[in-house]
Amino acid sequence: MFNGVTSDNFDLRSDVPQGSCLGPLLFVVYAPKLFEIVQAPVPDAHCFADDTQLYLSFNPNNLTDQGEVVRAMETCISDLRKWMYQDKLKINDDKTEFLIIGSRQQTLKINDYTIRVGTTDIKPVSEVRNLGSWFDCEFFSM
């Protein structure tokens, strides 16, 4: 309803219109399962509306640690994709970003990694937007 006028009814077989009142409610229904899946490989995750962020820390001096972090993230994303597919949801690969945060000295020690999301290899970006703020790979708010 807008300005006292109600739109026509229609069947909606899938998807939730952007900006609908139903979107946040459905997210709250799905969020507990999302955190259950994420918790095993990735201990830290944050969600805001339909935006989910996963966090892992590692020692940049340890190549094994670096590889384990990438595998943990890929496993987590793969598990999430399987669950979402079963519940007719979809990760937006085009909006998936991967940021490595550390001092210049730390980031120079890190191998070139990509994270596999479905059939797409996501390369690290130098900055991301997070709820209206910009963060770069050295974690300075811009």
Quick overview:
By secondary structure, the protein is of the alpha+beta class. It has 3 helices and 6 strands; from the N terminus they run αββααββββ. Strand 5 and strand 6 (133-136) form a beta hairpin.
Which strand order does the major sheet show? 1-2
- What is the approximate shape? elongated
- How many individual β-strands? 6
Helix content: 25-40%
Oligomeric state of the chains in view: single chain
Q: What string, H for helix and E for strand, traces the elements in order?
A: HEEHHEEEE
Q: Beta-strand level of the residues, as a percent range? A: 15-25%
Radius of gyration: 18 Å
Low-confidence spans: none
Specify the biggest β-sheet: 2 strands, antiparallel
Mean pLDDT: 80
Terminal residue distance:
39 Å
Query: Which structural category fits the helices and strands?
Result: alpha+beta
What does this structure look like?
The chain has 142 residues and is an alpha+beta fold. It has three helices and six strands; from the N terminus they run αββααββββ. It has a two-stranded antiparallel sheet with strand order 1-2. Strands 3-4 form a two-stranded antiparallel sheet. Strand 3 (115-117) and strand 4 (120-122) form a beta hairpin. It is elongated. The termini are far apart. 5% of the residues are buried. The model has no long low-confidence stretch (mean pLDDT 80).
